[in-house]
Amino acid sequence: SIYLDLKKSIFIPRWILNTVSLLIIAMYLIRINLDDLVVPTLESLLLLLAIKFFERKGFRDYMQIYILVVFLLAGSALMSLDMIFLLYFLVLVFLITTAIIMLTYYSQDPNMTLEKGVIFKILSKSLLVPFILIPLSALMFLILPRTKYPLFDFLNRGGTASTGFTDIVRLGGVSDIQEDASVIFRAKMDKIESDSLYWRGIVLDKFDGVTWRPSDTESVIREQSMVIGKRIYQEIYLEPYENKYLFGIDKPLFLSTPNIKKLEDLTFLYHKNIDRRIKYDAISIISDSLVDDNIDIDKYLQLPEKGLKKIRESVEKLSKNNTKKETINEILTFLKYGQYKYSLKNLPLTGNPLEEFLFNYKYGNCEYFASAMAVMLRIAGIPSRLVGGYLGGYYNKTGGYYLVTQKNAHVWVEAYLDGRWIRLDPTPAPLDGYVSQNDLLLNLRLLLDTINHYWNALIISYDLERQFSIIKSIGA
Questions:
Q1: Separation between Cα atoms, residue 123 and residue 118, nearest integer Å
Q2: At residue 459, does pLDDT exceed 60?
Q3: Where are the alpha helices (DSSP H) in 80-224?
Q4: Helix (H) or strand (E) segment spanning residue 342
Q5: Most buried in the list 374, 379, 396, 419, measured by CB within 10 Å?
Q6: Tens digit of pLDDT for each residue in 253-274?
Q7: SS3 371
């Protein structure tokens, strides 16, 4: 475009560009669907903008370019309203203001030559418009009515999402998530003991030898399920990922967001896949056990029909002449403090991965250790299930919140003993350990992430309730 503008004598005929534009619009109409309107629209606008650059440009063409750019920026906000959007907005306001003033001179005389002093005055004067516009935009942001149901929500159902926990845990599958350093959520709360940082997400009880699944997502919480311990309040900012499960520390009892379903295993389902950042409050209890005196024993003793011969022999040796509690401790010691090592590389992905892990490889990551323990407990006649979520997190003292990444993805076990579900974690610590809170790079990342957190807390989560709170404060 710059080359054609400098040459001036060379240009592409408008009928060719118009034909290409019509083809782009036709492709857009073919691709468009209700699941995702935003991405095809923005791609089409971007191509139309490129075509406008190739035209021989007059006043009208330049104005069309400016309008397309504004639409592109507005459309990008429907996909993700990250903090960088504010920078783009400020730059665009200044550039378009300057460009329109320049265009006014151009419309009067295309051959006019402006001296440097005049250009400097134009730039300095045009800054006055953004200085007036930006406070006005901030005021409109504060006072325009807001709702938890965005007006344009239907436009971008597809959204963009990062990889995260799904409805199943396949042996060897969690390792892909554990190598991803992206943020899954931030939890604003008081700092607690590191050994209590189990973030509950999904519960799985059906195993086919390779994959764990939840057998029932329709049941609701029963009144007799109780948990006693320290109460923890959390304000969670969950990033988009590929499923409906919401997360809370340890034993979440209550989540304050509409359109959710609470299950009897203290897990929560959102009404649709989480395809954009959401904020909710949670109340949890820190406890190693969950009282539940009415469970389906057969469901939590289910085992695959094949591939367990050698495992059964090992369980028989570990549980011989032992009580159920002693058997649990024997199996936990055997896996966590025995000859097995933690690893994310070259995991057993055979047709019988559990026996390969226990008797040949003798290394694996959390889902291998948790699966092995759950299966061994079931063989011993002790009901068990897997819990998937996240373990740990980095506490940001400045923002007062935990930063939890996909690397923290974890699976552990709950065993049923004496009317209680007891949390057990057979996975040994990684050989390289976790990143220390004193690590310089980590502290730098946490410092920078504080800005992101406040952006999310103040801008993304600004809703009708906070508007009323501000109005009441001003009135007081």
A1: 9
A2: yes
A3: 84-108, 116-126, 128-143, 174-178
A4: strand 341-342
A5: 374
A6: 999 888 899 988 899 999 888 8
A7: helix
What is the DSSP annotation of 171-191? TTTHHHHHT--SEEEEEE---
- Residues with Cβ within 8 Å of 427's Cβ and at least 6 positions away in sequence, in order, are 336, 342, 365, 366, 369, 370, 410, 411, 412
> How far is C-alpha 74 from the geometric centre of its chain's CA atoms?
23
Enclosing H/E stretch for 268: strand 268-270
The pLDDT tens digits for 303-356 are 998 878 899 999 999 988 899 999 999 999 999 998 999 988 888 888 889 999
- pLDDT attached to residue 357: 92
pLDDT digits (tens, 9 = 90+) for 76-90: 877 767 777 888 888
**Cβ-based neighbour number of residue 269 at 10 Å:** 16
Element (H, E) at 49: helix 38-54
Distances (CA, A) of 252 to 14, 169, 201, 247, 256: 63, 21, 9, 8, 11
Task: Answer whether residue 13 shows pLDDT above 90.
Answer: no
* The dihedral sign for the CA sequence 466, 469, 473, 475: positive
For 396, the token pair is 């940001």
Q: Closest Cα partner for 33 from 170, 190, 154?
A: 154
